[in-house]
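Fold tokens
===========
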Amino acid sequence: MQVQKQKQKQLQLQTMILIKIFIFILFYWDLYECKNIVSITNHVDEHGVTHRQIVLSKLPIHTKVSHRDNIEHKRMQESFNNMAPLDTTLSISKRVDIFNSYLRNVKETFNLISEAQGRGRIMSEQGGYLVLTPLNEAIFELKLKPWEFPRDIHRMEGQDKDEIEVEEAINENIKDFINAHVVKLPSLKNLAWENANDNEAVVHLQSLSSADIRLKSDDEGLMVCGDGNTWIRVGHIEKCSNGVIMFINKSLVIP
């Protein structure tokens, strides 16, 4: 029994490390592959066991900049510039035309994912954005269109509500739908982790609509869970200059 528990803990730790590695690659790899200056330090844990840690070296601001530093900095900057921002990437992804059209109607959110043009934003206190984008067919499958829920538009129209009031309700419905699929990432170090069970590690995020978004990995890749307890497989992933897009085949919210 004790051996089984130890194996479960090891598997749990491995799963957590895999997810952290994925997030590291997703957000930081392009930065660190350009400038791999590191040092190794020893760290003794609470049990007296010594571990080696790799620490990124920080050069003081008065350090003389070499010609090689200038070349690497230029290459790193070019790497940033070659990435399209979130809004551009979404606009050329035909399989998410419907989501993108709704997104453009929510000007406040659209402006948020359009403003930042550099990857540095993800690493700074300002952070970047994660857009969990349902494919066109996922939105077609909904019993109600995104503008029809959660506020009952047809009932409001049947009650002869003021046209302006109905229009405002429609806009709020669209805003709720879009914001449920957008996550602000203030900094990766603030991600909250918990043990879902004996062999899983789940990362908790919060959407712009303040809904709980859970992300985990398995042997086949990433899965996300929003409204309810249904886990949705993440399909294609696009890295952008100001965040990441994850394409999913189900909506995170349902009517």
In short: The mean pLDDT is 73. The CA atoms of residues 123 and 248 lie 25 Å apart.
